[in-house]
Amino acid sequence: MTKAKKRHRRRRADIDTPTPPDIVQLIQSRFPLAPVRSVPEIRLHRAGPNSGLSRLADADASFGIPYWAHSWGGGLALARHVLDHPEAVAGKRVLDLGAGSGLVAIAAAMAGARDVIAADVDHYAVVATQLNARANSVVVSTVLGDLTGGAAPDVNVVLVGDLFYEAELARRVTGFLERCVAGGVRVLVGDPRRAFLPVQRLVLLAEYPGGDFGSGAASGTQMNAVYAFG
Ligand SMILES: C[S@@+](CC[C@H](N)C(=O)[O-])C[C@H]1O[C@@H](n2cnc3c(N)ncnc32)[C@H](O)[C@@H]1O
Asked: What pLDDT sits at residue 195?
């Protein structure tokens, strides 16, 4: 792709969700880009010692838990899986539900997905995804909002990294994924086997070593799983 074409496609992606300049500046200045340990092809804006997370939470009530600034076992495994098995997404229209940093969406775009949409309810996550996509020279469209109450989206594949960490959320996500599968959408789930994982709906496809911020396993020795939801 020529540089001009890339610039054009990036601009198109950026207008999907407004990018408040203060959040852009904040992420760029306090969350340095670093390669992801078990997915080193991808660099992300990460929380570090100088991010000042508690001060940010005090200053902005909407800051919440910065899921987007940490590595989660599910996303690490699913991103690794998509990069190692590009045929899962190549040429397809893909939704990354609960995108966080956009790690899985970026992996799908790198693996040759035709269109990639990343959805999250946290506007910081949406901005982080836009910045991370740009830093990795891929195009990802973003949606700010909760799609789990709606019908199956117009995509071929839904990717879900680490979204079964609360009971009510897991119930809603499971219902949404059931509608997706009924509508002919292929669904892949990455997860470090959290408590609310709907195991009866899942078929194990692969396991990958990686960390998981949620269980304090930063070392990269934990095995995280990728499943087909059916
Ligand atoms: C544990 S993080 C996982 C992020 C990413 N998928 C990964 O694995 O690295 C969960 C993310 O899901 C988002 N989230 C929670 N509920 C959601 C919902 N109903 N719809 C979309 N995103 C949601 C959170 O804001 C957060 O960014």
From this structure: 94
Residue nearest to atom 8 of ligand 1 (CA): 75
How many angstroms separate the CA atoms of 38 and 82, rounded?
A: 13
* CATH number for 83: 3.40.50.150
b/e burial code for range 162-181 (CB count within 10 A of at least 16 → b): bbbbeeebbebbbebbbebb
Cα 3 to averaged position of ligand 1 atoms, centre (Å): 32
Instruction: List, run by run, the mean pLDDT of 10-residue segments along the chain (230 residues).
Output: 40 47 89 96 95 85 90 97 98 98 98 98 95 98 97 98 98 98 98 97 97 79 94
Q: Which atom of ligand 1 is least distant from the CA of 74?
A: 8
For residue 5, the CA-to-ligand 1 centroid distance in Å is 31
Total domains present in the chain = 1
Range of the domain at 12: 3-229
Q: Which residue's CA is the closest to the ligand 1 atom numbered 25?
A: 122
Closest CA to ligand 1's atom 18: 146
Q: Residues 179-227: pLDDT tens digits?
A: 999 999 999 999 999 999 999 999 999 999 998 998 886 667 789 999 9
* Partner residues linked to 3 by β-bridges: none
